[in-house]
């Protein structure tokens, strides 16, 4: 399995001090978080993509290219690449370029995002969101696998004898995860291509995640890529830790209560009971994360959100230290126990997923 960090890059006031970081401070903090992830032995850093305040990561490949130059082992990914509002030609070019610069340490997660106004900002209609995701990815998939592409569709101008440059490193396209919280059409899309399916389950109960992952696994097998158990699955998670669970709850509560996504809603206790959010000791994080396998099966990638809601950088780096020193080593060992021999390892450039790199 791969373990890592994802960031949505929100610029949120610290509710305990009232101070709001500058955009520059937040961008630099995301870089520091990625460097710390590699330092403590995590596998992946993923950034979101947003084009509206209070978020800063509008150019993921710029950030990931800078991080690539300062790391050696870390896999660089996106937590969302907006397949609906980005031109698939530009995605093909940008991520192939990043592949070369990062010596293959690159994959990406396709998604539609959760900001409705982004569609008209980029000349699209939100009512066509699913259709845009399907058509744009069909073109992107071809651009990385065919040297010369002739193509016509509904949402962009046609291509005639077009070659995307640079070509994917070693002729191997970046591995693609299709991220969705609630859309079965996206689970089907991931299954059709034999790509990975990432269910960012941080807002949802286990029963919903189970249904989505099972649908993807069943359809993956239906499309001939392997057994359901061989499908490539990733999950999200959200943690805040202290040695003592009561200290963790007391410290995190003011951040949770005003968080830009789930603040002013359910209580911290209710949210933690109903979703994967874990606020407590490292042992509690271990136990709850291991339970993901009970409803998602053996899976390949686990990403944690640790820098949301105005938490100061010092606190976030402490969280990553605890992940690297106390949590992930145990998770690696426990997830490996009883893992069937036929379950694929997480995909990398040198060892693509069984069917994903060819689909």
From TrEMBL:
A Pfam family the protein falls into: Bac_luciferase
Sequence segments annotated as region (Disordered): 1-21, 338-359
Luciferase-like domain segment(s): 1-295
Enzyme class: oxidoreductase
Protein name: LLM class flavin-dependent oxidoreductase
InterPro entries: Bact_Lucif_Oxidored, LLM_FMN-dep_put, Luciferase-like_dom, Luciferase-like_sf
The keyword Oxidoreductase is annotated on this UniProt entry: yes
Enzyme Commission code: 1.-.-.-
Annotated GO MF terms: oxidoreductase activity
Keywords: Monooxygenase, Oxidoreductase
Biased composition (Low complexity): 9-20
UniProt superkingdom: Bacteria
Lineage, highest ranks first: Bacteria, Bacillati, Actinomycetota, Actinomycetes, Kitasatosporales
Keyword Oxidoreductase among UniProt keywords: yes
């Amino acid at each position: 399995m791969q373990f890592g960090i994802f960031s949505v890059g929100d610029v949120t006031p610290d509710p305990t001090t009232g101070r709001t970081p500058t955009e520059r401070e937040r961008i630099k903090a995301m870089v520091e978080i990625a460097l710390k992830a590699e330092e403590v032995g995590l596998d992946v850093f993923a950034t979101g993509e947003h084009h509206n305040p209070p978020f800063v990561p509008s150019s993921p490949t710029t950030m990931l290219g800078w991080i690539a130059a300062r790391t050696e082992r870390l896999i660089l990914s996106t937590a969302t690449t907006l397949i609906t509002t980005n031109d698939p030609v530009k995605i093909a070019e940008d991520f192939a370029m990043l592949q070369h610069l990062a010596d293959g340490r690159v994959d990406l997660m396709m998604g539609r995002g959760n900001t409705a106004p982004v569609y008209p900002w980029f000349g699209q209609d939100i009512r066509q969101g699913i259709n845009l995701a399907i058509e744009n990815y069909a073109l992107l998939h071809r651009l990385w696998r065919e040297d010369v592409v002739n193509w016509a569709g509904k949402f962009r101008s046609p291509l005639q004898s077009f070659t995307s440059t640079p070509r994917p490193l070693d002729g191997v396209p970046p591995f693609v995860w299709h991220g969705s919280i609630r859309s079965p059409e996206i689970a089907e899309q991931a299954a059709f291509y034999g790509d990975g399916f990432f269910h960012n389950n941080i807002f949802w109960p286990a029963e919903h995640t189970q249904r989505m992952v099972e649908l993807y696994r069943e359809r993956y097998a239906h499309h001939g890529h392997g057994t359901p158990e061989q499908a490539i699955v990733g999950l999200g998670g959200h943690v805040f830790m202290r040695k003592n669970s009561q200290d963790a709850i007391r410290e995190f509560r003011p951040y949770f209560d005003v968080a830009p996504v789930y603040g002013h809603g359910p209580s911290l206790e209710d949210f933690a009971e109903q979703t994967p959010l874990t606020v407590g000791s490292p042992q509690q994080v271990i136990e709850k994360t291991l339970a993901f396998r009970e409803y998602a099966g053996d899976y390949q990638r686990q990403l944690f959100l640790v820098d949301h809601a105005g938490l100061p950088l010092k606190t976030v780096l402490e969280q990553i230290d605890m992940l690297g020193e106390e949590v992930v080593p145990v998770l690696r060992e426990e997830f490996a126990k009883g893992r069937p021999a036929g379950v694929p390892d997480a995909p990398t450039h040198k060892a693509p997923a069984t069917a994903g790199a060819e689909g």
